[in-house]
Amino acid sequence: MAEKDRQKWDFRYQENPGELSPSLLVEQYVSLSACGQALDLACGNGRNSLFLAEKGFRVEAVDISRTAIDRVAGLHPGITARRLDLDTWEIPENEYDLILNIRFLDRRLFPGITAGLKPCGVLIFESFTGEEEDRFCLKKNELRHAFSDLDRIHYSETKLEGEGRFKGTACFVGVKSAHKARR
Predict the structure, then answer these.
(1) Maximum pairwise Cα distance, the chain
(2) What total number of domains does the chain contain?
(3) Inter-residue contact 9 to 64 (CB < 8 Å)
(4) Which domain CATH number covers 151?
(5) What are the pLDDT digits (tens) for 128-163?
(6) For an engineered disulfide with 116, which of 20, 25, 91, 100 has Cβ 3.0 to 4.6 Å away?
(7) Per the confidence metrics, is the pTM higher than 0.70?
């Protein structure tokens, strides 16, 4: 499965490198985080990794696509680009001041994302919503419940116009409190 996923994403990034501007959600909430170690899950073309590195973060950018990682590797000296299969990778505990998960969904990672944040670490998460039975889309209020251990700063669900698989987006921004981190 990993090789098939890698080939799919390599092809997609060869055909279309994606958006170049950072996510608006990241721009709006990056200031909540201490400028330290950041993790950009499924970093794609590195648009958010580059934005963070230019703000002074040391960024670990991870993606399954060789094409994407080869592009990200040379963007900025503050970025460490790693080609990883996120289906099997474990996020190190208490490692990151900031974790980004933008337009990617792997529910298996949810507990590791929370555990990977340092006390007072920030999570910025945005992904697509869809039909209840679509395992590649978030369900209504899913992020709110999945990250209930974090102090919620922002949560929204918005509908997208038009037809298609993706019905909207869900956005969550939360902070791992120092009190909850000691439990």
Answers:
(1) 47
(2) 1
(3) yes
(4) 3.40.50.150
(5) 887 666 677 888 889 999 999 999 999 998 887 655
(6) 91
(7) yes
